[in-house]
TrEMBL record:
It comes from Paludibacterium paludis. Its EC number is 4.1.1.22. It is an enzyme of class 4 (lyase). The gene is hdc. Belongs to the group II decarboxylase family. It comes from the Bacteria. SUPFAM superfamilies: PLP-dependent transferases. This is Histidine decarboxylase. Keywords: Decarboxylase, Lyase, Pyridoxal phosphate. NCBIfam families: PRK02769.1.
């Protein structure tokens, strides 16, 4: 049966709303500069990537070939030989973090997970779901983990195999926990590298750091054991997704055999989205390395511009190295609501994602924040 006129109208109204607000976001990290029109024809198929892309699957409508190429790309980007890696296309950053924490807990079942106060809220959910012991570590003013407090808490716990959750770009301040510093401090405390696990949450910055000239350490060559990145953030996709990459030798220990689909499964969910690997595949094929680098350089330049313009207006804005997250004191509710900004602990931020080709929206926001500040300082 066709839809009633009323229902059709409802959909049409939502379409108009989406078109109008397509590029609305200044406060969230979702890039909207994509065109996947080429893939719309696949919406008529029930594509399902149930199980592991590396195994034979009875369910013929899968996009495993594309998922495999996506995983080859990210293994290379995160500096691990493809044959030594294993990972998959997830529902987003949260599932990647869950997979990393699950893997670490299977390796060290009674251990404690250490994460900083600036860690994404998904981790508090994950430790509950996985029932991992956990400790929250203080943060430095710029949002990095407090290394002294991390070491003090690890030492006090007496843990022989600590699990360290490192932020590669925090959600609010865009801060990167320094993997080198953490490993040096662990060595100084008498730990061998094989004694502990580091998962890197690189939801946004995992797609930025490989393309900058002076990245903070973040990849497998730098020492991480697993890493998760979101697909709908820096890359941009119409459906949330992500990628998680881990070491094959660790993943082999958690494989589960399922007779029903005649395959081994290492993933968290049963059915998995078969369309999102196509989006990611098209995204990685669409840009050459140099083009992606230029796209990201543009975002970083816009962030630099925003900080300078805020500062010129007397507003104390700043950003962390290699970050497209510009932090400033939270303006009045009226202003942050108008611009749909995320706010936290007295801060607001603007994220210069790739669909901001000119400075119009950024300028309008800065003018409103400056006017708001002047109004408030007059009233005080
Ligand atoms: C966005 C974000 C997440 C969660 O990612 P989703 O893709 O929304 O599940 C995790 N960690 C950080 C640092 C994030 O910014």
């Amino acid at each position: 049966m066709p839809l009633s006129i009323e229902n059709q109208n409802k959909l049409d109204a939502f379409w108009a709303y989406c078109v109008k607000n397509q590029y609305f976001n200044l406060g969230y990290p979702e890039s909207a500069d994509f065109d996947y029109g080429n893939l719309e024809r696949f919406m008529r198929f029930s594509i399902n990537n149930c199980g592991d892309w590396a195994e034979y699957c009875n369910y013929l409508l899968n996009s495993f070939d594309f998922e495999k190429e996506v995983m080859e790309f990210f293994a290379d980007l995160f500096r691990i030989p493809f044959e030594d890696s294993w990972g998959y296309v997830t529902n987003g950053g949260t599932e990647g973090n869950m997979f990393g924490c699950y893997l670490a807990r299977e390796l060290y079942p009674d251990s404690t997970l250490f994460y900083s106060k600036d860690t994404h809220y998904s981790v508090a959910k994950i430790v509950k779901l996985l029932r991992i012991k956990s400790q929250v570590v203080e943060s430095l003013p710029n949002g990095e983990i407090d290394y002294d407090d991390l070491m003090a808490k690890i030492k006090a716990s007496g843990e022989e195999h600590p699990i360290i959750f490192a932020n590669i770009g925090t959600t609010v301040l865009g801060a990167v926990d320094n993997i080198d510093t953490i490993q040096n401090r662990m060595t100084a405390a008498g730990f061998k590298r094989s004694d502990y696990y580091i998962h890197a949450d690189a939801a946004l910055s995992g797609m930025i750091l490989p393309y900058v000239d002076h990245p903070q350490p973040f990849n497998f060559a730098d020492g991480v054991d697993s890493i998760g990145v979101s697909g709908h953030k820096m890359i941009g996709t119409p459906i949330p997704c992500g990628v998680v990459v881990a070491k094959r030798s660790n993943v082999d220990k958690i494989s589960v055999e399922i007779d029903y689909i005649a395959a081994h499964d290492k993933t968290i969910t049963g059915s998995r989205n078969g369309h999102t690997p196509l989006f990611l595949w098209q995204a990685i094929k669409y840009y050459t390395f140099e083009e992606q680098k230029a796209r990201i350089a543009h975002c970083l330049k816009m962030a630099e511009y925003a900080v300078a313009r805020f500062n010129k207006n007397g507003i104390d804005a700043w950003r962390n190295d290699n970050s497209i997250t510009v932090v400033f004191p939270c303006p009045s509710e009226e202003v942050w609501k108008k611009h749909c900004l995320a706010t936290s602990r007295g801060y607001a931020h603007l994220i210069t994602t790739a669909h901001h080709l000119d400075t119009d929206k950024i300028d309008a926001l800065i003018e409103d924040v400056a006017a708001d500040r002047n109004r408030r300082s007059k009233a005080a």
